[in-house]
Amino acid sequence: MPEVKLSDGIVTLSPLRLDDAEAHLAGEDEELVRRLNGGPGTREGVEAYIRHCADQWATAGPLRAFGIRAGADEVLAGTIDLRFTAEGLAPGQVNVAYGLYSSWRGRGLATRAVLLVSRYAASEGGQEAVIRVEPDNAASVAVAQRAGFAPGKRTRSEDGTRLHWYIRDLRIGTP
N-acetyltransferase domain: which residues (predicted)? Predict the structure, then answer.
């Protein structure tokens, strides 16, 4: 797996690793389960996902999953991932999905992580970053707006969930 480490001095992003499983499970709450995970995690499931992520890094696959790490100790505060191919995306669009553990929310870490991962996506050939958000998820809408994303189209996921798209052109640079 490549050594990718992105940092702005407050937040550090690096690929998820197996020793993150316990912290991830401890940080999982109802909000993350409902909006991102689709169900409560198990150690076996989380470890299988992290191994899948490592394989994606090793093979330059379309998924790049990072741990969002905070402070000098780089404590796992959440996750953020990029998908360079996903249903509904046009060529050059990259999906950004993120979640912070409850004790880390409200500190601006998600916005910082989105900005860092957007720069990385641009360096990997991404032309537009897309954040798809349920309309009632005010916190994620605020993160997208603070990170310079503009409202885009509205769609429904396969299960019928309404999604509002927020888009940022990566070709004009990211802060």
Answer: 11-172
**Tokens at residue 8, please?**
């702005």
Quote the tokens at residue 98: 């993120």
Give the tens place of pLDDT for each residue, 93-107.
999 999 999 889 999
The full set of domains in the chain, from first to last, is 6-172 (3.40.630.30)
Q: Give CA 144 to chain center in angstroms.
A: 12
**How many Å is the maximal CA-CA distance in the chain?**
42
Whole-angstrom Cα distance, residue 107 to residue 132?
Answer: 21
CA–CA gap between residue 27 and residue 77 (Å, rounded):
8
Burial class (CB in 10 A: 0-12, 13-18, 19+), 159: exposed
Nearest 5°: phi and psi at 122? -65, -40
Helices (H), 28-92: 30-32, 43-58
